[in-house]
Amino acid sequence: MPRTLAGITAALTEEQRAQFRAELDRIAYGTARDVVLDAWWAQAVVSPQDGEDARERALEVVDLAVSLRNRSDYPLA
């Protein structure tokens, strides 16, 4: 799933979309916005997984991807 507004939004429930948009509306750009995108991207990737093991593996992948992006300052898409 792409770490984009469209990718994240498409994966969220209607209630989650409203929360996601509200958080984004309160934040301009920069590091704070990246943190919000990372958190909601993780939610969007992990939530649809079936079973605790699958969710844990998905979270590990998200953590690795975010760590690599932060290390390289290269935005994930």
Name its key features.
flat, 77 residues
Characterize this entry briefly.
The protein has about 80 residues and is mainly α.
How is this structure best described in words?
- There is one protein chain.
- The chain is mainly α and 77 residues long.
- The protein has one domain (5-72).
- The chain has helices spanning 5-11, 14-26, 31-46, 52-72.
- α3 (31-46) packs antiparallel against α4.
Give me the secondary-structure category: mainly alpha
Shape: flat
Strand content: under 5%
Rg to the nearest angstrom? Answer: 12 Å
What letter string, H or E per element, gives the SSE order? HHHH
Tally of separate domains:
1
Query: What is the CA-CA span between the terminal residues?
Result: 8 Å
Major sheet, described briefly? none
Number of helices: 4
Which helices and strands appear, and what pairs or packs with what?
Blueprint: H1 5-11, H2 14-26, H3 31-46, H4 52-72
Helix pairs in contact: 1-3, 3-4
